[in-house]
Design a protein that fits this description.
Elements lengths: L3 E5 L2 H12 L3 E8 L5 E7 L36 H28 L9 H11 L5 H11 L7 H12 L13 E4 L6 H14 L4 E5 L7 H12 L3 E3 L3 H11 L4 E5 L8 H14 L2 E7 L4 H13 L4 E5 L8 H10 L2 E6 L8 E3 L2 H9 L11
Parallel strand pairs: 4-7, 4-8, 5-6, 5-7, 8-9, 9-10
Antiparallel strand pairs: 1-3, 2-3, 10-11
Helix pairs in contact: 2-4, 2-10, 3-4, 4-5, 5-12, 6-7, 8-9, 10-11
Length: 374
């Protein structure tokens, strides 16, 4: 093993120690928080193999080099031990990070593409690092932008985003329940209301279920949204309550379940999420804020991807100056971006994720609404 491990009181302190030891070319493989609150960070110097003899094969390149989001092996009903789950997440993060390292290093050796010294790389690095876009995502965007031809700045970035990210807005379907998952404060409840409003504009109808009844003001918030949208609403206590409602009332609307804040690293939270998903037959959709610590976002989204999440709603575009953390996490985890929330207003606050919108937003020097400017 050629990586180094750094332990500190916070992520920032661990990063400083990493850069002091490995320089600016250091690449983070994984982070883990210990029970005492300290942070353990594993990192490697860019271009250095993780194992002896590694990197002798053909380096990955292009969109096809990104692996799909990993799935859990074995019986999906089994709840793995928390330590085992954390180890699998960490190992998966290490593999993905090393793929990015090898791909980026190979591009540096290629005179046409993507490495330091390439004018397009330097331009995109200056442009996108201010948005907190991760190094692996910048390198992937540069690689695709080289094939964009003669286009405007916005068109070229949109071209690269279309080939780098996956976009999959949620389609209205009464037979496809949706379950929003994520940490407390990410915007799950307001995203539920925005999805219901969006369905109404398409001639559809949703009904709310909320299992987030322990949070202060949660029931009042959902009740207010349900009355404003004139839709049905149930506060549910557990998966059995959901099963009873589905059996006795047989709702014909598309069901949208708002869940309590969960951690993908907590065994009990994973078990609860699976129980709700299975009884409802729902697709879990992650809700995550646009800004924050990039490493933390990447770890969270990769962990959710391992337990079956394939799409994400990114919130707080209107209050975030830097939107790169959420986008980078989706890219590195290999999950699709479904919607973007750019306003607090229920009626028009949700935008279908698309490369043109993101290109315009990433090129803005000051945050602001875009959807109404078309």
């Amino acid at each position: 093993m050629s990586y180094q491990t750094f332990t500190a009181k916070s992520v920032d302190e661990a990063k400083r120690a990493m850069r002091q030891a490995l320089g600016d070319d250091a690449v983070i493989l994984s982070t883990r928080r210990h029970p005492d609150g300290s942070v353990e960070m594993r990192a490697i110097k860019k271009g250095k193999p993780l194992f002896r003899g590694e990197g002798t094969g053909s380096p990955p390149s292009g969109r096809n080099s990104r692996s799909a989001a990993p799935t859990l092996g074995g019986n999906p009903d089994n709840t793995m031990d928390g330590r085992e789950f954390s180890d699998q997440v960490e190992h998966g993060a290490g593999r993905n990070a090393m793929n990015s390292v090898r791909g980026d290093f190979s591009r540096q050796l290629d005179r046409n593409g993507g490495g330091r010294g390439d004018p397009l790389y330097e331009h995109y690095h200056a442009l996108l690092s201010r948005q907190a876009i991760s190094e692996p995502m910048i390198a992937a965007l540069v690689e695709e932008a080289h094939h964009a031809g003669s286009r405007s700045e916005t068109e070229r970035l949109a071209f690269a985003l279309e080939r780098t990210l996956r976009f999959a807005p949620i389609a209205y379907s009464p037979d496809s329940p949706i379950m929003l998952v994520g940490q407390t404060g990410a915007g799950k409840t307001s995203s539920s209301a925005k999805l219901a409003a969006r369905a109404a504009t398409l001639g559809g109808r949703m009904a709310f279920m909320s299992a987030d009844i322990g949070r202060a003001g949660a029931i009042e918030q959902m009740t207010t949204y349900a009355k404003a949208l004139d839709i049905r609403y149930w506060a549910v206590e557990d998966p059995q309550h959901v099963a009873d409602i589905m059996r006795e009332e047989r709702p014909r609307e598309q069901i949208l379940l708002d869940t309590p804040g969960v951690s993908p690293f907590a065994t009990a939270d994973i078990a609860a999420m699976r129980a709700f998903r299975e009884v409802l037959g729902a697709e879990p959709v992650l809700v995550i804020p646009a800004s924050g610590d990039v490493t933390e976002h990447v770890d969270w989204v990769k962990a959710f991807a391992r337990i079956g999440v394939r799409r994400c709603i990114i919130t707080k575009f209107d209050t975030s100056r830097r939107i790169g953390a959420g986008l980078s996490a989706c890219f590195e985890a290999g999950i699709a971006v479904a919607h973007l929330s750019e306003a607090p207003f229920i009626a028009d606050g949700l935008v279908d994720a698309n490369p043109e919108y993101l290109a315009r937003r990433l090129l803005m020097e000051q945050p602001g609404r875009i959807a109404t400017r078309r």
